[in-house]
Amino acid sequence: MSLRSLALLSLCVFLTACNKINQENYSHLKTGMSKADVEQLLGSPAECSGALGMSSCTWGDEQSFISVQYAADKVLMYSGQGLK
Fold first, then answer.
1. Contact predicate 61/45, CB 8 Å
2. Cα 80 from Cα 47, distance rounded (Å)
3. How far apart are CA 79 and CA 16, in angstroms?
4. pLDDT per residue of the chain (84 residues) written in tens, 0 to 9
5. Coil, helix or strand at residue 58
6. For the chain, which terminal residue's Cβ has fewer other Cβ atoms within 10 angstroms, N or C?
7. Residue 68: DSSP 8-state
């Protein structure tokens, strides 16, 4: 295996390991967690929207995502799809 191939393989493994949108992190979510704790676990969300003390944030893409709904910046409910 050439050095270039080894470097490319290492980079792919590293990027896969850095993906925070996975079943393990999803299992750490709990109702009542603060928004700051969720963002520490999952990183910055891809998008958020809300009004009047309620908000919804999504991490990931159309194939694999975690969605969290907040009331007063505390987790009210959450869901995920396509997690590995």
1. no
2. 15
3. 21
4. 677 665 555 444 444 446 899 999 999 999 999 999 999 999 999 999 999 999 999 999 999 999 999 999 999 999 999 999
5. strand
6. N
7. E
| CB contact at 8 A, 83 and 22 | yes
Cα–Cα distances in angstroms (integers) from residue 80 to residues 26, 28, 59, in the given order = 7, 12, 9
Q: pLDDT tens for residues 31-46?
A: 999 999 999 999 999 9
- From the list 48, 66, 44, 65, the residue with the least C-alpha distance to 57 is 48
Cβ(40)–Cβ(52) below 8 Å: no
Specify the pTM.
0.79
Cα–Cα distance, 50 to 67 (Å, whole number): 13
Nearest one of 35, 37, 41 to 56, comparing CA atoms: 35
